[in-house]
Structure formats: structure tokens, C-alpha cells
Hints:
The structure is a homodimer.
Chain A: H1 5-11, E1 16-21, H2 27-33, E2 41-46, E3 52-55, H3 60-64, E4 69-72, H4 73-76, H5 79-85, H6 90-104, E5 110-114, E6 116-118, H7 119-132, E7 137-139, H8 146-152, H9 156-181, E8 184-186, E9 189-191, H10 200-213, E10 223-226, E11 248-253, E12 265-271, H11 276-295, H12 304-315, E13 336-338, E14 345-349, E15 364-367, E16 370-373, E17 378-381, E18 384-388, E19 394-396, E20 405-406
Amino acid sequence: MKADLDRLMEERNLDGLMVLGDSTGNKVLNYLTGGAHLERALVVKRRQGPLTLLHGSMERDTAARTGLHLVDRDATYNMYRLLEKHQGNRLAAMVDFLYQVMQDQGLAGRIGVYGTMDAGAAFVLLRQLQAIAPELEIVGEYEDSLFALARETKDEWELDQLREAGRLTCLIMGETQEFIQGHQARNGVVQNRDGEPLTIGAVKAFIRSRLAFHGLREDHETIFSQGRDAGVPHNSGDPAAPLRLGQSIVFDFFPVTASGYFHDITRTWSLGYATDEVWEAWAQCKEIFDRVMASLAVGQPCREPQLMTCDYFEAKGHPTVRSQPGTREGYVHSLGHGIGLDIHEEPRLSHVVGNDTVFQPGHVFSVEPGLYYPERGFGVRIEDSVAFNQAGELEYLSNYPYDLVIPIPGA
Amino acid sequence: MKADLDRLMEERNLDGLMVLGDSTGNKVLNYLTGGAHLERALVVKRRQGPLTLLHGSMERDTAARTGLHLVDRDATYNMYRLLEKHQGNRLAAMVDFLYQVMQDQGLAGRIGVYGTMDAGAAFVLLRQLQAIAPELEIVGEYEDSLFALARETKDEWELDQLREAGRLTCLIMGETQEFIQGHQARNGVVQNRDGEPLTIGAVKAFIRSRLAFHGLREDHETIFSQGRDAGVPHNSGDPAAPLRLGQSIVFDFFPVTASGYFHDITRTWSLGYATDEVWEAWAQCKEIFDRVMASLAVGQPCREPQLMTCDYFEAKGHPTVRSQPGTREGYVHSLGHGIGLDIHEEPRLSHVVGNDTVFQPGHVFSVEPGLYYPERGFGVRIEDSVAFNQAGELEYLSNYPYDLVIPIPGA
Lengths: 411, 411
């Protein structure tokens, strides 16, 4: 959590931090600024020093609400003048700006750099900064970065955001179920009173309208995929397809609140009735889901539930990512992932080599066993998101019935 | 435009391209894949060769719809196995993966790298890739990159997306005006039939519901700011504030379509009546807006309309970013910016040193003069988005009345 920044800097022997980039899609910047909309922002920090935001003058009201120490960039380091000084060379002007800021803010020694930007631009920018400032060491971290670690454990404010995200997500899942059940079955298809088939596209339009009503956003398209498409985990569903009875529907729902926090839940539905093979796959997913949920505890290695799930599915005769890496059938992914400002973050419930994380208070993550048989026309997945609160107790953030079969009038 | 990629690679002496990262917020990747949702994607291209997408197995249906050449990453370069090989070192595994792909795809020589990721992660990743492959030259570009240039001119398909974004945005602006006018004025405040004041927050909730209905998204918060707040260009407005008569309201509206293309329009409204100083500032903005619009032509330097606008406002006695860099009063920004998959992209209608761009067919950009006096409690801005089509003709993408005063029943 944010309170760990100084400790993490010390552990990594970092004397300073620098976070670059526009706020859009920049999760580290959003983490520090509460999601404020900022263009070409810069946050810097010395170890034991305050978080300081350099912001554009036009964004001074937005910047003031972040609660960070502020420097008006345009008033202090005017970019028009820097570009004049460097004959219009934007790279040289930016390097000069960054170096001036580091000197003015007392950043010296080993400086960790973070924030989202173009990969090639970051490469030349940081290389050039390192070249003009050989007394500094510009440090990049790949994946297990200081911020990935800080963000991996949520503080109480963040847990509240995640609880609220779960509450609203489940509310909309319920509204969506009711909306579908407000239709009738006819000739194996769900249709409205006028006899028009209800399509996946219409269900998604309904979901979007409810998201807007409740103040949530769809960061990327909701998965509502049916039959064969449900057998390809990230297939989001064919909008033109009518809802059919007796097909597995994977409804994987991951909206984001205005404060930027995600929820993640999946239910598998079969409208009217379910076929035997979908029932069997679903029951297996539910059984291992329940076993995993009952086993979760602070101190347990995060890879363990994945190994337990692979053991279970392999014993039932399914290929898994462990027994057949790269398989497209059976259990084809890892068991879960952390959730926060990113839909996929630390911790990872994966058996991958190098995953030595153990569950801790503040971990918020999904648990999502699934079985996929696209050639046989189905896929199933069950997913809830859970949290270990500060007391180390497991909290369910997704509270929604697991029912596979959803009754439809006339079916 | 995309058809220029080979020419631009030749001009920059690049033998290959590599685009990295998740698709969320990754505009270059979205540009090449039509906005497909992909995690840890990689697009590579040799000069004169095809665009090739390496995608996760779970995303194979999504990948197939991009129309690019495809390689199933999990089947060909399994990350579980790469991590085993590198004892769980994610950086080493990723460098190994990239180098294998480059060899398999025949990428040699000077390789430009693009795509959005963590700045520090990009720095170490590309430095390490360069270290193990000294026969290659890893090239990063800062700002005026090959993709910034390609994206700067829109092809006919993109122009159609931008036209549609403009049509829908103006439709919702009209619905918003009607919604406000469906209220009554009382004691200087706009209120509903029950006598409750209409707040900026309620207007924004209405806007969001209409965005959802029309299939648009709010990438960042709509600006609907009133009085003093309208005098700070990027203040998005106080949600708790009731709409008041006779205050300048800056309504800067920049939604994004499902295909990822933005529109950008601003109107300044004053409900019921306008004060003399708002009228005067608005009339000046409208005059220079009209002059600029009449002057726009292919071949004209993009900095010229900004110089014209500074000349005009300075002659009227206002400080400008040219006469007083860093000013918070008067004309405090540049005249406009390109619009496409980013809300701010090339070309820039700025007088900044180094801006030598001239208008070309395919340029789509905003024109937005404004005057800001927060201490005097107002700001005004007028903005339309326009395009030079392939014939070099100026097309208006924003078609909405400019009226400053919006009548309110009872006012």
C-alpha cells in the first residue's frame, strides 16, 4: 500500500522516484493522484520526502484536489522557453526539464522511473537523461516493480472502493438476469413480445445503460459469449447472435468505478435447461471453486490453489496448462489474478516458475476455474473476487447466486 | 495514414518495427489492430513485409478479426517454458521471447520500437535486448515518431469514423441543451418542477446516460464548468453546483466512439442572459474563430492560425501565451490539436519553436480560441473540429449552433 513506499524504496536501494506521462491509462500516476486527469504530469519523491506533482497551469484546480505537494510546471519551467533554448528539439527540452526538476527537488543517487508512455520514447528519453547526468543512476524495473508491490496490498480506503465496485457489479448482473428473464422462449430462442430474438448485442446495450446509470465504466468489452464462443476464454461474444436455450453462456463482467477500481466476476448461465456435458463441466468447476475458496488463507503460497486446481482437473481427465502448456482445451489459464486499478495485477494465482508470493492482508484477487471445449461447443467458468482484509479474514466481494440454469418463461 | 508505413520506415532508415504492450490505452497498437482487446500483444513488421500479430491463445478469435498475419504466442513461444528456462526471471524471459520473434520474423538492422508500457520497464527491457543483440540497433523515437506521423493524416475509413463521432457528439450536445431547457428558472437558479436545483452533476449524469445510449464513451470527464471554474481551462466543473443564470458555462465535450475515435467540440453557454463582459469576450472569440476558419487552407503552416489569434487578442488588450508565457489570464493555450485515436495528437496549432508542420489532406483538428478571467469569474471558449478531406477541402465535423445565451423558461 501507499504507506509502504519509503520501505520499498529502502529495500530496493532507491533514493528517489519519478513517475511520468499522461494520466490516461497510467495506473501508477492514477494511484498517486487519485485518478486526477492530468496531461504530461510528473510526480517525484525523495526517500522520506513528500510526493510532489508538477502539473500544467490549466490543470491547477485538478492538481489541488490530489493533496500532493504542487509545482506549477508552466510557471516554473515554461515549455515554450525550453523549446526555444533547444531549437525546437522536444527530446532535449524534456531531458533538460527532467534534470532541472531533479536538481530542484533534491533527487540524487539511484532514481526509479515509472509511469506509462511510449516504449521507444521512454528508451531514448531515459538513455539521454542518464547520459547528461552520469552522477545519477536511472533505474527501470520490469514487472515486479516497487509500485506493483505497493499496489498489491490494498489499504482500507482502497478496500472500500473495491467493496463498492463489487456491490454495484453484482447489482447490474442481477438487473441483466431480470432483463433476460423478462423475455420468452420460443423455438429454442429467447425473444421479446413482438417475437424478435434477443441478441447478445441487445443484452450488452442493456448492460452499458445500467453501467452508465450506476456511474461505472466498461474499460474493455464485457464477455457475454455463448456455445462455441464461450469455449474461447477471451471471446467477448457475437453481438448478432440470438440467445439460445441450453447453451453455456460465459458472462464475465469487469466494470470499473469512477475512482478507477475494478471488480471481476463470472457466472456461467444456461437458459431454460443445460445439457449433460455442460452440467458435468460446471459441477466440476463449482466443486474445485468451493474447495479452493475453503482453503484460502493468509500465509499460503499463491501458486498452491492453481496446483490444487490442476491436480483436480487432471484427475478428472482434462488437459491443463500444467500438463499440456499451450493447450486450447480443458483448463487453459491460471486460477486468478489481483484486482485494483488494473484488472490484472499482483498477486498472480499461477504456477509459473518464479511466483513465490504468499497471501497477505490487503490482497484482493479473483478465483476463476474454467473448462473449455470449443470444438464441442461449450465453455464454463465460475469466478468471484475476494479480499484478505487487514485482520487477515477472507471477505467475499462478489455476492451473486451461482445458478447455472436460468429459467426463461415458456422454456 | 497506414499506407505510408513503408515510406516512413524508409525515410527514417528503419528496417523493422516492433509494437509492444497491452491494448488498453495503447493507441499505436489500437491503430494497427482496429482497437482489438489484447493482452501482452506484439506486432512486428519488416520493411515491405506484412504486419504480424503475436497474440495469446485465449484471444485467437479477437486476433483473427484484426486481419493481420497471426502467430499464436502461447503455442509457439510458451511463456511457462520460457520462465522455466530463465529460472523465473521475467525480464530475461521477455528479452528471449522478443529476440526469438525477431529472428523468426526476419527482423534485422535498425528496429523502431513503439507501444505503451511502463517507462522504466521499457528502459531496462530495450537496453537488455540491445545488449544481447549487438547486431541490431534498437531505435526509440521521442514524440515526432513514425506512428505520430502516420496517424497525423487520416485515411477515408478513419475520416468516416471521425464524421460519425462528430454527428453523435453534436446530437448529444443537443439532447443536453433540451434537457436543461426542460427546467425552469427561479431566483437565478435552474430547477426542476419540484423546485430542486439542477446541478452540474445531474447534467453530467444525463450526458453519460445519452453517451451509453448512443454507444459512445467518456474517456475522461466532460468539462461542464461554470463562472470562475470556466476560467480554468481544464477544470471539469463542480458536480454539486446548481446551474445559475447569467454565468458563462464552458461545455467542452470529447467523447470517443466504440471504434476508438474522438470528437472535440466546445460551446460557451450563458443561461437566460449574459453579462456584458462575457458577451464581449465571447464576441471576440467568435470573431477570431470565424477569421481563422475562413483562413484555413492546405499548405498553410499550422502555427499561422495561432499567431493570427495571438495578434488579435493582444490587439484587444489580452495577455497571451506568446506575450506572457505562463499567463493564467487572457488567452492561455494554443489554438488547437489533431484528433484521432488520441484526443490530443498531431498536428499542433501551436506557435511553439520547432512546429514546422503545414496543413495537409487527411488532417483532422480542433480550432478553439478562448479567453479566461477566473478572478473576474468567467471563461469562454468556442471550439469546432474540422478535417481536410482527400480532395483538400475543409469539412466541418462539428455542426452545432454557436448561441451564447440559452433561453430558460421563467428567466
